[in-house]
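2024-03-11 09:14:02 DEBUG pipeline.ingest accepted 1 chain
2024-03-11 09:14:02 DEBUG pipeline.ingest length=317
2024-03-11 09:14:03 DEBUG pipeline.predict start
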Amino acid sequence: MQSNKSKIALSPFGMENSSSITTIKLVESKDGVLLLWSATQKPASNASGYETAINSIPFFRGEKTASRLFAIDQLLPPPPEWDAAVNPDDSFSLVFQRAGGAADNILVASSENPANRIQVPPGYPFDSYSKPRFVGRSGKHPADAISSVENKERLVIFARGRDGAYKRHANYCECVDGMIVRHRKQFIVFYKADRPGPVRGNDIAPGALYCARISKTGMETAVELFAGRTIFEFDVDASEESLAVFATSKEGSFLAKGASPDEPFETVECEEELGGEALSRPAILATPSRIFIAALENARTPKSRVVQATFSLDGRK
């Protein structure tokens, strides 16, 4: 791991009423980079239960007008975990967690037909699934493969068949969080394994971050990326040129980029107060020329706001 002495200055995104935001994501559409965000509230119709609205907003334009993409109805107030991907026709695919009492499952929907929701996986009533993510996040059909953490123990993959149903494809590492990106025609898994220590907030456990290539025979030997750092949350993206990680840690939030899992990652610390205690829900998007990052600062409080930064791959801010 190589450290860059320069720091990334995070600036306010410019959204009002950020105190209800629970999760953010960054995606790239034909119209440019978009910030997706969700908030869980009682429905305006005064119906029973709660509703999580997922919205999109341009990352660059001065006019911050949001568009609603999805609405998730739920019985209980805890916000669901979710991921989104842009399809080749510029529509969106969504995968989200559905609380089921003792066991949670995950569902897939499309912005073209949001009412049509496919359960992933069917037939596992006694297993609970969390941290759903699209494998690779982009490609011809981004919703064809989904990763999820099963029973808070292991990363599993579900693949969509020709009949539209999802089936278990592979079991990978033991972890509490994980995701898979596509890089130079290869798949690489990033995952967080438990590490002893106090949790952050109510539910963010400390851990160590690992990565490994996925070959035809399975997952290759994993390497710890940032030895000595206690990782809380992370997001990963890849372009043809680089792999990029944005993470919150006990020592502070940082951006890391590398050409491959076999080479050292260069890390750049973020300028922030309280040693990273205030930042959560990191989001990252890597393009051939730039890396975009965003996070929540003081989430779920009156001081909450979205902060962001752009970093060019030649090292300039």
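2024-03-11 09:14:41 DEBUG pipeline.report DSSP finds no helices and 26 strands in the chain.
2024-03-11 09:14:41 DEBUG pipeline.predict end
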